[in-house]
């Protein structure tokens, strides 16, 4: 095995090794509103589920030269947003929304996307998304490095689940992942789609949903 001690690595290398090791990762494509009502849209892949007893998600947003990114600032200011899952069909549009834009320019318009009203939050949703998770801020955990906040970790509570009928069966509450064709982030500029899908029964299968 080739070993690298984290204490010997700079932040860029640590990120590179984490991003390359924790794969594949779902992409949270999140809309938020700033205090003036302007919509921000950006993708983040340090994103995961936290709990099913209370429907909680986590999203970690690395600061830009010590300043919260727009999404983080908006979550702190308004306490809500909408997370969309990225699919193979929306991959190119998602990638365009990762680019920094001048103040006042909309990522939604630049990527040729469309907004629609959400159900339980003021932040709008993307019409093109097949899965939308409307969220409210549950907890903010500032991650400090050398006495300064380096990352904003958000625990977000899902207050409304929205699924396109083409990928969801309301009778069984099952999501058709093959039809969804989710996009996964790997490392650097690399992404992946689903390969062959297989099933396994856990030893204690009674706990499965």
Give Rg in angstroms: 18 Å
Span of the ends, CA to CA: 37 Å
Question: Which structural class is indicated by helix and strand composition?
Answer: alpha+beta
Annotation, overall tally of beta strands: 14
* Unreliable stretches covering 5 or more consecutive residues: none
**What does the oligomeric state look like here?**
single chain
Percent helix, as a range, is 10-25%
The secondary-structure element order is HEEEEEHEHHEEEEEEHEE
Question: How would you portray this structure in words?
Answer:
This protein is an alpha+beta fold and 209 residues long. Helices cover 16% and strands 36% of the residues. The strands form 4 sheets. The protein has a 7-stranded antiparallel beta sheet with strand order 3-2-6-9-10-5-4, covered by helices on one side. It has a 3-stranded antiparallel beta sheet with strand order 1-13-14, with no helix packed on it. The chain has a two-stranded antiparallel sheet with strand order 7-8. The longest helix is centred in the first third of the chain and has 11 residues, at 11-21. It starts with 10 loop residues before the first helix and ends in a 17-residue tail after the last strand. The mean pLDDT is 94.
Describe how the helices and strands are arranged.
Blueprint: H1 11-21, E1 25-26, E2 28-33, E3 39-44, E4 47-51, E5 56-62, H2 70-78, E6 80-85, H3 91-96, H4 107-110, E7 115-116, E8 125-126, E9 131-145, E10 148-163, E11 168-169, E12 174-175, H5 177-180, E13 184-185, E14 191-192
Antiparallel strand pairs: 1-13, 2-3, 2-6, 4-5, 5-10, 6-9, 7-8, 9-10, 11-12, 13-14
EC number: 1.5.1.-
Keywords: Flavoprotein, FMN, Oxidoreductase
Cofactor: FMN
């Amino acid at each position: 095995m080739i070993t690298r001690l984290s204490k010997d690595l700079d932040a860029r290398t640590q990120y590179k090794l984490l991003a390359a090791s924790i794969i594949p990762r779902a992409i949270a494509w999140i809309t938020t509103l700033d205090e003036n009502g302007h919509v921000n849209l950006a993708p983040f892949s340090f994103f995961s589920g936290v709990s099913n007893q209370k429907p909680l998600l986590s999203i970690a947003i690395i600061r830009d030269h010590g300043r919260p990114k727009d999404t983080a600032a908006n979550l702190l200011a308004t306490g809500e947003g909408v997370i969309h899952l990225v699919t193979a069909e929306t991959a190119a549009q998602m990638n365009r929304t990762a680019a920094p834009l001048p103040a006042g320019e909309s990522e939604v318009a630049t990527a040729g996307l469309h907004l629609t009203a959400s159900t339980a939050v003021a932040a709008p949703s993307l019409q093109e998304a097949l899965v939308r998770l409307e969220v409210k801020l549950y907890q903010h955990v500032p991650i400090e490095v050398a006495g300064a906040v380096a990352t904003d970790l958000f625990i977000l509570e899902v207050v409304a689940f929205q699924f396109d009928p083409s990928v969801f069966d309301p009778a069984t509450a099952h999501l058709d992942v093959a039809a969804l064709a989710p996009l996964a982030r790997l490392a650097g500029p690399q992404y992946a789609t689903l390969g062959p899908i297989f099933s396994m029964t856990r030893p204690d299968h009674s706990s499965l949903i």
